[in-house]
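As agreed, record copied across for absentees:
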Amino acid sequence: MKGKSFSLDWMEEESVAFSNTTNQIELWHKRLRHFNQATLVHMQKKKMVQGMPNLEEEILVCTSCQYGKQNILSFPLNKVWRAIEKLQLIHTNVAGPLKTISLNGSRYYIAFIDDYTRMCWVYFLKFKTEVANVFLKFKNWIENQNGHKIQVVRSDNGTKYTSNKFARFCHDVGIEHRYTTPYTPQQNGVSELKNRTIMEMVRCLLFEKDLPKKFWAEAVNTVIFLLNRLPIKALQNKISYEAWHGYKPSLQNLKISGCLCFTYVPQVKKDNLIERLKLIFLSVISMLQKAIEFFNLKQKKVIVSKDIKFIETEKSNFKDVERSASKEIVQDLGDYVDEAPVRGTILLDDIYQSCNVAVLELAEFKEAKNNPKWIDAMKEELRMIEKNQTWKLVDIPKH
């Protein structure tokens, strides 16, 4: 519904009819952020994860994938050396800068990929100069968690990796740093292909639920979480998560990113009228918390919770949300500023809210009958009522 009306575009095939059944391959294709459908069927048949139902063989055409993915010619690579144990070789690459700043102010992200298991981790950066510090943080954390030591790091020749600080750190801890040939990113194929896959899935995810681009970091975080639980050609009949942890993950509780959901308001914050908060599911938090990130539509901030009711078929209209938020800002600030900052146009009703105007209505008819303007107004109202045949005059019932 849009403004008390139901909008229907006859040119859109999706609007012509609504199916009363859900195609499982389509549902899980969306839940797994538009991952390759044929590979999903293969993964389910080989029982590579837990919690997935039987999927149909039919491959569907996905509109979001057409918008979010494009094919490029493959780069022929000679057979390269592969690691034979965890953390023996780490691939890394920095993506960005993205035109849109994320919710936490980031413009870049850096990915670290274990060559042996192809497990991937991601960190978000505001500046490229943070790369050395982030790598130090990652190294300390991953080695403490796993018990292995990083031996080799492979990256491109970007200045963020060739800086004296990064080189000195690798030298001090005994890490061999291998570079690709200048202007040949294909030689860093593991990282480049991973970045391509990440951004394709991110675009599909945002397009699917009409999410603003400012949610790209949350989308990347979710995509990484899923790619670690999805098949990859480098591993035979096994996924990265199992190769790294030693057991199969479960996908039973996956939901579609960007869908609407509701959560109970904590007892200390609720009143008799507000029982639930309307949220948007953003991403799964996998490294530090067993919880999920959501976007609070009313307060316009990210919250973390796990007591949630999901509605996967619904999505939020952010234009309506922004319009409503703008109206609330005007109402809240009306007593303190002349006018709230507006980008584009604003409704007259919103302007009236910030004006010091009072409309005084008369209390009784006897006050109005002595005022010619009120008499004319009442006559005009009656003429319109008679013209539109709003009511019909009848006799009062006897009882």
